[in-house]
Amino acid sequence: MGDVETTTNDTAVRAAATQSVTLDDLLELLDLERLDPVRPDPVRLDPVRPGQAAEPGDDVAVTSGAQHWRGQPQAQPDDRTFGGLLLAQGLVAAGRTAATDQRVVSLQADFIGGVPADQPMHWQVDMVSDARSLSTRRSTLLADDGSELFTATTRWATTREDLPSWSSQEPAQVPGPETLQDLADRHRDDPRIPAWWRIERPVHFRHVEPPPYLAPESVTDRQTVHLRATSDLPDDPVIRAAVAAYVTDMSLLEPAYRALGASRHKPGSRILSLTHGITFHREPDLSTWHQFDTHVGIVAHGRALGDGDLFDSSGRHVLSTTQLGLVKTV
């Protein structure tokens, strides 16, 4: 799930705060273990007609069977698996079965059940379809009894430089990251903030305005953060996309607390992810600073719908994301 309920156990929080989740930790968590024999690359058929997506009866191969992978949980949060890790591992598992010249273009995920934070994760990847220019994968996280805890459908495609590109989206006009504080620096010694929100993370994560953890300073439905990996990422488009997916789950619904004039980390407050979608417009690489503009336009009966846009340091629109989650305030 996306987040965890605030705890009042200061002793546990202080002890857990020493368990950083570094970029090296994350990259190790994304190095999934293959559980079944290695099979040939996906079936590659004749190309689809220029300028057209694959259609039923075109040149698509529906691949039978599935592949299985094992992932490990991260140290924090310690009572539930961070939803961003599920997005990232599900994307990696799917990407390892797609053709190497294809890039992820979309992800649609459903958080179905609570995922234990102290157990290895069993991923099943169904290869729904394959074509030269487009393929579809479904990554499912399975419980010990075979029930589904999380599922993500990803689409993978070749990049067509001869087809048009255009965007009207621009990053918000806000101060840059250089003078802002990382979360770890802002809240390191504050026991009122849960450990996950004040330890070292795989990315520098800097709010333009003070985050609504204890009390928002202004009522608004928008928020901007600057983020960058703590060191250069590997030259692997699947891993780079997975890291981008990971960070989209860190703050997407925080504007709900700003809009409601509520505190994110007051004891009893909660965010619970239900669905998460990402559309990749360009290949992401968080080795450099990116700006993440987020917005929550509605909260209905505790269900908040958020959307976000990620821009690189040149202002190019890298990805769009949406999330539906349960929000509880006290």
Describe what you observe in this structure.
- The chain is an alpha+beta fold.
- It has a single domain (10-44, 58-159, 178-328), classed as Beta Barrel (Porin).
- It has helices spanning 10-16, 23-29, 83-95, 183-187, 237-248, 254-260, and strands spanning 33-34, 66-71, 103-111, 121-130, 134-142, 148-157, 203-207, 222-229, 270-280, 290-300, 303-312, 317-328.
- Strands 1-2-4-5-6-3-9-12-11-10-8-7 form a twelve-stranded antiparallel beta sheet.
- A hairpin with a 4-residue loop joins strand 11 and strand 12 (317-328).
- The radius of gyration is 20 Å and the shape is globular.
- The model is unreliable at 3-17 and 41-62 (pLDDT under 50).
Number of strands: 12
Helix content: 10-25%
What's the CATH C level?
A: Mainly Beta
What summary fits the major beta sheet? 12 strands, antiparallel
Order of helices and strands: HHEEHEEEEHEEHHEEEE
